[in-house]
Amino acid sequence: MNDSMKALVLENYGEAFKVKALPVPVPAKGQVLVKIMASGVNPLDTKIKRGEGKHARQAVPAVLGLDLAGVVVAIGEGVTTFKPGDEVYGMAGGIGGRQGTLAEYAAVDAALLAPKAANISMREAAALPLVFITAWEGLVDRAQVKEGQRVLVHGGAGGIGHVAIQLARSYGATVFATGSSHSLAVIEQLGATAIDYKNMSVKEYVDKYTDGEGFDIVFDTVGGETLSQSFEAVRTYTGHVVSALGWGSHSLAPLSFRGATYSGVFTLLPMLTGKGMQHHGDILKAATQLAENGQLKPLLDSRTLSLEDAGIAYEAIESGSARGKLVINI
Fold first, then answer.
1. Each residue of 10-67: pLDDT tens digit?
2. Per-residue pLDDT tens for 162-185?
3. Predicted confidence band at 188 (pLDDT cuts at 50, 70, 90)?
4. Whose CA, among 77, 82, 221, 310, lies 20 to 30 Å from 183?
5. Do the Cβ atoms of 245 and 177 come closer than 8 Å?
6. Whole-angstrom Cα distance, residue 54 to residue 56?
7. What are phi and psi of 125, to 5 degrees?
8. Distance (Å, rounded) from C-alpha 179 to C-alpha 162?
9. What does pLDDT average to over the chain?
10. CA torsion angle for 119, 303, 317, 56 (degrees, to 10)?
């Protein structure tokens, strides 16, 4: 193994990445060194690159990238869960001063990683961590999804949404999902009932699909006005609204008048605080099991992009032209 590696460095917010040679990191206690094969790109990555969002700032110059899939090549002191040669994946860097995944190698906390499913590619594995962890924390940890419930996912063809549909269905829930006209077919293929939110009001789809009762769980992956609409779509008393983008100001009156519950999801906390990292590894072990059972498969954008092409992936997310998760081959 060389002493240096190729990495993309962001020197100033909003600028183009630069290809640089950096030293290969050395795994510290509790860490493993991963040879990165693929790096998933999320909308959050584009915000970090622009320097937006106090919750997600990474001091520059920095290597960005949250998600990775790759092969363990060395282990630090005290690591017993992985050995060199293991194929792993995780949301493991690019925030809180941690080196990101747009590089050939990264030293990452072993607790954040899980074994990759044998039946999915490195590219598919790299597409999963952030979106699956977010979906799990919302549906399982907060809302405790169970068989027979009616679940509404806002933004069902998006990164978090398309995984949330599959996760809710794996628990035996009946899933409905909103989308624009071009995404309705994708939502139906995932096994959910598609709702064209531009052509149906909240009241209309609540009446049509729940006899006016409301949905047991409403998972908002869009934010803004969609979160306010979620409060109107949830079931009285036992309903639970979960949002991965609850950053704005909202009237709680519609929720309160239903006696329903709201939870926020903030997936970055373990990487920012160092607390709860093992839970993320455990969530991804569950994802591996679902993938191996044929109940979880990420939708990938068809573009094949190298490390040098990462800017194209970021532009595609910002322009809305991505069709599925974008993944960089490293």
1. 999 999 999 999 999 999 999 999 999 999 999 999 999 999 877 777 899 999 999 9
2. 999 999 999 999 999 999 999 999
3. very high
4. 310
5. no
6. 5
7. -65, -40
8. 11
9. 95
10. 50
DSSP string covering 23-56: EPP---TTEEEEEEEEEEE-HHHHHHHHT--GGG
Strand 217-220 and strand 193-196: the pairing is unpaired
* Residue from 315, 277, 272, 322 nearest 301 by CA: 322
DSSP strands (E only) in 42-119? 67-75, 87-91, 105-109, 113-115
Tokens of 323: 């069709």
- What's the rounded mean pLDDT across residues 92-106? 96
- Encode burial over 211-243: b for 16+ CB neighbours within 10 A, e otherwise: eeebbbbbbbbbbeebbbbbbbbbbeeebbbbb
- Total length of the chain: 330
- Extract the tokens encoding 21: 């040679």
Determine the residue type at 11. E
**118 token code pair:** 């044998």
- Tell me if residue 84 falls in helix, strand or coil: coil
Considering only CA atoms, give the Rg of the chain: 20
Q: Is-contact 27 35, C-beta < 8 A?
A: no
